[in-house]
Design a protein that fits this description.
The protein is an alpha+beta fold and 157 residues long. The chain is built from three helices and ten strands. It has one domain: 2-Layer Sandwich (60s Ribosomal Protein L30, Chain: A), CATH 3.30.1330.200. The strands form two sheets. A five-stranded mixed beta sheet has the order 1-3-8-9-10, with no helix packed on it. Strands 2-5-4-6-7 form a five-stranded mixed beta sheet. The longest helix is centred in the last third of the chain and has 15 residues.
Length: 157
């Protein structure tokens, strides 16, 4: 099945699934994959910290990096994924409005992600972050391949 991960959402799946998210600008797109179990998940988080709106974070933890990332990992563990095997990749966290963006949301999303991963002893295998272009991410759970499309160009992450 092909599942679209919209802004403020997360999906997990198994080997026959394809996860896709569109229009990653300042948002974080995170993929987590266990190659032995052929399971994975994708998060499309919009804002760095849930403390700006705890009510929204309770209703939708995937909207925020600090609440969405831990929930994604927990879902993968519940499906049988093991931390030692996980392949983690990040995309987005850009500045779609250029260097004049006042709130630096993309940069802050990336900083919170890196802090969370560091505290939990998890490394990013690869990333395609920053810049001003929007990205689309395709995540094939049969192979674990993550393909980034931006500006009409496709590349493996």
């Amino acid at each position: 099945m092909r599942y679209v991960v919209v802004v403020g959402d997360m999906k997990v799946g198994r080997k026959d699934d394809m996860l896709v998210t569109h229009a990653l600008g300042s948002c974080l797109g995170l993929t987590v994959y266990d190659p032995a179990e052929k399971i994975g998940g994708m998060l499309h988080a919009m804002l760095p910290l849930s403390k700006i709106n705890p009510g929204k974070a309770d209703a939708n933890p995937f909207m925020f990096v600090d609440t969405g990332v831990p929930k994604l990992f927990r879902e993968i563990y519940e499906m049988g994924g093991q931390k030692s095997r996980l392949i983690v990749k990040a995309a987005g966290c850009g500045q779609p409005l250029g260097n004049n963006e006042m709130f630096k949301i993309g940069e802050r999303n990336y900083t919170i992600l890196k802090k969370l991963l560091w505290k939990n002893n998890v490394l990013l295998e690869s990333e395609d972050v920053g810049g001003t272009v929007s990205r689309t991410v395709h995540f094939d759970l049969a192979s674990g391949q993550v393909i980034i499309s931006s500006g009409g160009v496709k590349r493996l992450l």
